Amino acid sequence: MIGYILRRLAFLPLTLMIVALATFIVLRLTGNPVDIFLDINRTPEQVAALTQRLHLDQPLPIQFLIFLRDLLHGDFGESLQFSGSAVAVVWQRVGATLQLAGAGLGLGLVVGVLGGIACAVRQDRAADVLISSIAVVGQSMPSFWLGILLIEFFALQLHWLPTSGYGDLRHLVLPAVTLAAILLPNFVLITRTAIIELMGEQFVVTGRSKGLSRARVLVTHILPNAVNPVLSFLGIQIGSLMAGSIITETIYAWPGVGRLLINSISHRDVPVVEASVFFIATMIALANLMVDVLQMLIDPRVHRA
Amino acid sequence: MQRRPLLVLAALLAFSGRSLAADKTLTIGAAVFPDSLRSGTSSYASLSLLEQTNDPLVARDNKGDLHPALATSWELVNPTTMRFHLRQGVKFSDGADFTAADVVFTIDHAMDPKSAYAFVSRIGLVEAATAIDPYTVDIKTKTVFPTLLRGLSDIIIEPKHHYEKVGADAVAGHPIGTGPFIFQEWVPGDHYTLTANKTYWGGAPKFDKLVIRTIPDGATRVASLIAGESQIIEEVPIDLIEQVNQSDSAKVDEVSTTVGLVLTFDPTIKPFDNPKIREAFDYAINKPLILQQILKGQGEVLQGQVLTKGVLGWNPDLQARPYDPQKAKKMLQDAGYDFNTPVPITTQNGKYVSDTDICNAVAGMLNQIGVKATVNIVEGGVFQQMSNAQKLGALYMIGWYSVGDADFASVWYTKAGYRTKWQDPEYEKLFVAARSTNDLAEREKDYHRMMDILFEQNPSLFLFGLPSLYGVSKDITGFGAAADKLLRLTQVDMK
Fold first, then answer.
1. Residue B476: C-alpha distances to residues A21, B45, B221, B491 (Å)
2. How confident is the model at residue B287 (pLDDT cuts 50, 70, 90)?
3. How many beta carbons lie within 10 A of that of residue B245, not counting itself?
4. Helix (H, G, I), strand (E, B), or coil: what is residue A227?
5. Distance, CA of B495 to chain centre
6. Is residue B334 helix, strand or coil?
7. How far is A208 from chain B (nearest CA, A)?
8. Which residue has the higher pLDDT, B141 or A156?
């Protein structure tokens, strides 16, 4: 078990290295960052200074080696547009993103799984049809639209919540719901399917026939077995979660890494883009590792396989 | 334990009532939010924030006219030296006196290549600034430099002693100035909080606290205005003007900017070397219709020139060509135009108000006379790259701002401007002539002729002067929409 985790951790740098290389190449494929960052009124001195600062006067392989060397020191360079190092700039936004992603994921997971259970238990009855339909509709609803609807209803009509911004718990509600809405429908459907499949299994039938109540069978026999498919799905969804947070952060003016990334891409603030992508990739990789470990703890067969 | 969710809910609801503070706080929803408070970055968004704490020597008003600020008067000592008399008794927010040393320091700092001060191009012909006495500064220019004053209105005066004490990075983290507001808190990507400078030389602001929040999404910005979370918002999306005006709490305040939106030809791509063909295209575009339908009547149709109405050098004798598709088609046929020529219109999406929609409409109108026009949307960085390589294709959309003086916008049609491949020897000569005299009438005459040349030659299709749209709460008085998009808040009061 420990050995497995260590092995996985040993591969982490490789994964991140590939991500770093991809970011590095794409940033340079889409045009000279110096041309894009500097304003139309730039002087030749400014161009020369920035070219040197980003090491763009070196051949590409050398540039990448310099980039790797700095990366090993945890140094992505100074941000072009902010004052301070790229790492510090990203770090300032990490809290907001983790808060939003955590709340969104938690909400999506809890409500989604409960919804899925409700559907499975009431299979093909009104509750199931209703919840499943909402899930399907929700799945096809773009989050920017949902976001605007939520603002319109809860902030403008009811005056319950602020329209946007970062602050106390009330500010977190709408962004978290919007983000959760991206994951929630899938969690409902996955949970529903997993439980319905298990309901036909022999051990469930046995449980019922030896006189256990439906609820008891559900809690003690079905749910523990339904956890794994939901968990593997969770692992896959961490990526969509991060992608969704970019949109959500923009709608709600949430000062997180996603918005920072978008903004830095359009200015080609190379160091900040590289640092942000690296942070997001690390998050996804670690989350996936955690999911795998959890799965192993729950079902040791996963490990043996 | 079971009651806890209810308690949380109760707590949430308790907080939802608007907190009543004795202080009057003005909150502004900003569309574009700079990434740092470092001076000299190229964006007007950052100048807008910096001008809350720092004043220039000469300030623009919302219309673009110049007024004394930290300089109370100025005169030409000789054709290349301007003498500025500084306002006396002005203090920086840390209590230090503002003197000529700060002006000299600021100019030196801006001109130092190491500062990477983007707005330095505004005062590009300045040679040196020298203090004559504590309240007099001479600014010497390399040649006659008629746009010096206007250029200086983009340069905020910064405290020498503060820079020397803490260094440029720390200054960006906590700016100190002579302006109407005093730095309180800066949270990157979220908000900027300032307090009123009660001893501001130009009169203390009428409220206590200023919060400038970034709200990048247009619909959210409008929602925050209508919900009363912000009292002023920038850049109301065109399609939400109605919603703001129909709400009981706010209205839209519009002003024309000096940004002229144009579609520029690449005359090295045949057949667009032929001015007749370029002119024919101009007849094919129904500009008033696009203004009405897409820009909802906001802004103006450019009158056959890159300059917007009222700017120094704007030629009142020129008029936009009328919409006449038959004539356009006939002109193209007469010029032997090959209707199979692909005409991609390159544009960015969201760089200018309704840019893509306008390009689509133009392409549609060109299609109607048989021209094979298509719209090619590219990402901002890619556009910049194509622009630098001068490979934007047959027709591309771009906006040139003049901030009130023809010099700043007309430069883009000169060889030295590097932004259009069209060139004209007479235009070049006039541009240099207009830049080499301080005689206003002379300069105006030159610019009028230059605008004539642009109209005759059509290096671009001149489309629209773009609007600047603010949403303003009905509780606010004394706010005006600014042509240059800088926030001017000293006269603002709130109920």
1. 52, 22, 17, 10
2. very high
3. 12
4. helix
5. 30
6. helix
7. 31
8. B141
Give the count of Cβ contacts less than 8 A between chain A and B: 133
Joined tokens for residue B127: 């040679």
Kindly give, in sequence order, each residue whose CB lies less than 8 Å from that of residue B117, ignoring residues fewer than 6 positions away.
Answer: B39, B40, B109, B110, B111
Amino acid occupying residue A292: D
CB contact under 8 A, B16 and A166: no
Q: Which amino acid is at B57?
A: L
Place of tokens 């010099």: B407
Q: Would the pTM count as exceeding 0.90?
A: no
**Which among B353, B355, B363, B261 has a CA at the least distance from the CA of B305?**
B261
- Chain B residues near residue A42 by CB distance under 8 angstroms: 118
A136-187 pLDDT per residue, tens: 888 888 888 888 888 888 888 888 989 888 888 889 999 999 999 888 888 8
CB half-sphere exposure, B475, CA atoms < 13 A:
16
CA angle A38, B428, A47 (to 5 degrees): 15
Amino acid at B261: L
Are the beta carbons of B227 and A260 separated by less than 8 Å? no
pLDDT tens, position by position, A40-58: 666 777 788 888 888 888 8
Tokens of residue B3, six digits = 């009651």
Phi-psi region of B142 (alpha: psi -120 to 50; beta: other; left: phi over 0): alpha
Q: In this structure, what are the phi and psi dihedrals at residue B415, rounded to the nearest 5 degrees?
A: -65, -40
A46: nearest CA in chain B? B116
Task: Work out the angle between the directed axes of helices A126-139 and A86-121 (0-180°, nearest 10).
Answer: 150
Angle between helices B325-334 and B275-283 (to 10 degrees): 160
Token pair 């960015």: residue: B348
